[in-house]
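Input chain follows. Return structure tokens only.
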Amino acid sequence: MPFNPFKRKTEPAGDARPAPPPRDLPGRPIDFEGLTEEWRLVGKMHLEGRLSDALNRREAVAISDMSWAPIDGGEPLQAAPGLQTVDPYDLIVVLTGPDSLPILSEEEQTAHKVHKIAYDVALEVPPFRVIGTVYLYPGSEPARLMDRATEMFVPLIDAIAFIGDRQVSEDVTETILVNRFYLRGIEQIDRRTMLRHVPLPGQPLGGISWQDKSR
């Protein structure tokens, strides 16, 4: 497991520090929520291009307006002005929305998904379980996400994150990025029941999203 400087050994120092002087931050600010093994981080990331591309570069990312709280939900968010960068290796799950992507036309959005197959999956990234839809190229089944790859984070669409039975994300988050370095298990599921999907004999293993099933 990657080294995690957010591991909770003492009370966070960020909320006790005075606000640092204003910084000349690169790129555009986007709202994000990052989950580590023991902390929830809420604030803004400053980047150019897509959030997933910035994280997959595996370089520290500038952050601002930060707050944090223990992941167990036992304490409210507190200001953490001392947090000015975050290392992607330390983030297990990143929750974000439409402002994390460049503005695309409807045609460009459709082209981005062309030739990909939708799989409804549950990813085990302890202590989290993330349920959503992943789009993969034909011939690349969800189990291949466990393989080594150049992309550190995989996006799940219309996703929900849990710790045990407790939900730690909104009801449905537009995009949740999952750190593959923490990935310990994958199941293909039926979104209607949230249970493991068992295909009928002769039925393909993917290609139908939960939105299609509900039509």
